[in-house]
Structure formats: structure tokens, C-alpha cells
Amino acid sequence: MKLFDAHCHLQDPRIISKAPQLISSAVASGVSAFAVNGVSEKDWNLVKEMGVKYPSVVPCFGIHPWYVAERSPQWFETLKSMFETTPTAAVGEIGLDKGSKGREIDFSDQVGVFRRQLELAKELNKPASIHCVRAFGDLLEITKSVGPFPAGVILHSYLGAAEMVPEFAKLGAYFSFSGFLMSMSEKKAKKMLKAVPSDRILLETDSPDALPKSESGTLYFVQGDPSLLPEKGNSSQDLESNASSSGGSMKLPKETLNHPANIHTVLGYVARLLDMNNEELAELSYTNAVRLFSYSGSKLLLERSAADVSGHTQNHSTTHVPSSS
């Protein structure tokens, strides 16, 4: 069973030092790719480096609405040059936010920065990962004016209304689901999920945020997570033990870090609400993500080409070389 984490932040300062272990353990669990999204000019080079270092990392560059005020006068030229030097990259994280944190950032400023990045994504024919909090009406209006998007856009950690799904889907949107979905009532979440076309469903972790609620005590923890330090009486071993003895329910500190392997918990939750089995949804969401991230210059296209060449060479070789996998 293969999974594709369609949106995460493995370059986040809270987990960057643990990235090698997080990636290797997530890969071992069945996660074969991670779309790692930058949030400001300050972390784009770090994301680029991760893309070079890890075959499983798809780098993405963008200015998140929370960091709009921090942008430099040259931000757009810098962004364009990042894509010129990194053809494997997609666009993200970009978006609009009218939530408690987003309200601190001038909204017309957010709109201007978002629109320019969205137009760039369309011009480059690359998918863009979009953050939207309490601004779905504005988002629909802007995407309608800029779209449609043949290369797709990702409504990451989607928590919008079921009624808006067809409008966004018509423009080329994919809908990605994380642990944040568990904050919505099951009835509302189920209605919304059922409205999403099956070829537009994606799964993500938004790691290190969006820790899913665990019903079975099977969460992965980030080693050294400050919120789980023994002096706080919250070591991961204790929590796992408590979860087992309490039938799987788990009370975790709000700031607990989310491990990218926890996409398995998201998979199980979304599959249950869609009345699908885990394997079926894993295959569906993986296929959708591979299609979306197979833009010109992408790692997925390069890997496919390399595999085709390798297969062609093996088929015409007189000596059989066993695969290392």
C-alpha cells in the first residue's frame, strides 16, 4: 500500500533536525512521497535542499498568507527564479486567511500576493497548494477570475462547505484532507467528502501541524517532541500505554507535533466516512496525487522515464540483473 503526503512542512524549524528520521520511518510505513511546502522567502532554499537530498520530497515554493507582510520588495522575482532553477518544484503554500491569525494581516495585501502566485502557477502549468481559512467566498471569486487550472490546484486541509465543492472542482481543484478534518462534525464531514469527485481526493498530514485524533492509539510521535518530555509526565511511551489501557482514546497536549507517518490515521478516518476500505482509498488518493504532481519537470515524470529506460535496458540485456527492491 503506497501513500502520498500531498502537503506537509518537513522544513519547519520544530522538526527540521529530525527530518531524516521522520522521512525514513514514514517511508518504511508506506509513504512514498511528500509535497513539502515553503511558507516564505526564508525557507525556500531549505525546501530546495530537501528536494535535492531526498528522492521522496517534492519541493514547493510560495508565500503563505501569514508571512505576506514579511516579504521583500524582490519577492516575486526571487520566486520566479526559484522555479527557473528548480523545475521539479510545484507552487505552495499560498492562500487567504480571515481566521484569528490571518486577521492580523491586511487582507487586500493577502489578495494581491495570492493572485500573483496563482497566476504564476497557471503560467508555469504547475499545481498550487492553497491555504484557505474563513475566506472561501473570496477564494472562489479569485479562482474563477484566474482559472480554470488545467494543472490543478490543491485546496489543502479542506474544511469548506459541501455545496462549494462542485464549483471548485469545475475549475480543476483537488481536495486534500488532514487531521484537521476531525475538528468538523462527522455528519458535515461525511456530506462534504461524498461531494468530492473520486478523482480529486488527496490525503496529507500538514506535518508538524494537524495531529489527528487517534481512536486506536496507533499514532506515531516525533522523538524529542518538547510537549511529550518526561518531566511533563507525557512521554510517548506513557501515552501509548495509557491509550492501550483506555481503549484507544488519547489525550495529548495541543502543541504535540504531528509525524508524517500519521497519514495512516487520516486514511483510516476518511475511508470510514466514505464507506471504503483503506487499501482502496490509499490506491485512489495515491493515483490522484501522482497524476497531479506529474507536471513538466517533476520528479515523478523523471522517475517514470528512468524506470522506462531501465526496464527497456533489462528487457534487451542478455544477463538478468535482479532488482534490489
TrEMBL record:
Q: Which Pfam families match?
A: TatD_DNase
Binding residue positions for a divalent metal cation 2: 131, 156
Annotated spans, Disordered: 231-256
User: Which domain of life, per UniProt?
Assistant: Eukaryota
What are the alphabetically sorted keywords of the record? Metal-binding
Q: Does the keyword Magnesium apply?
A: no
The answer to whether keyword Metal-binding applies is: yes
Write down what this protein is called: TatD related DNase
